[in-house]
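Why do we bother with a discrete structure alphabet at all? Because it lets us treat a fold like text: something you can write down, compare, and reason about line by line. To make this less abstract, here is a complete entry for PH domain-containing protein. Read it the way you would read a sentence in a foreign language you are learning: slowly, and without expecting to understand everything at once.
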Amino acid sequence: MAARTDGGRERLPRSGTRLWAFAGYAVALALLVGTLADGLGRTDLVGAALALLAAGATTVVYVRPAVELDGDELHLRRMLSTVVIPLAAVEKAVVSRFLAVFAGERRYVSTTVQRTLRAVVGARSGRGGAAGAGAGGGATAAAGGGATAPTSEADLVEQRIAQAAADARRRHGVALLSDEQLALASQVRRTWSWPAVAAVVGPAVLVVLALLLV
């Protein structure tokens, strides 16, 4: 459950496993092998294009999404784009069925980190023990200086973002819910990942062209 550091960038844990990614690549490989097994003909172009599309879709859906800390910024890597949020602008981060980061009057979401439906329902109904109490509690405890030991990836992500945001506000002299913090929230930006876009759009175009040639 520990966060992973890549150079100066810290990648926070994600929920679930990589099994779907392996399954997607396996399907892509099976399509490609089946297409090329008897040589490449006109009709086989469709199979090859579908294999590329399966590989590209698997990458952007199951591999690319991530939550990262980079200096004074929080990066929410989505399938085709990345939302960059100044950490000092973050008011709170809560993991329910997905991660929600609040900055200014906006909410930015990431499906990379999730809680199970059982944990969410348990937290809302006042039951669920440690798993239920963790929904939103980790971030609150960390912000108040009394963080408890995380019991899941969701707890760890809540606490780590809350800690990093509090540290950034302290470094820049920004008070929580102040006008300065609201001004920082206006600096949130979204950038497109053109390689990810090309990984999906390119093979999709090839599929259409291959179908036209059949």
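What the structure line is telling us, in plain words: The radius of gyration is 21 Å. Residues 139 and 158 are 5 Å apart (CA to CA).
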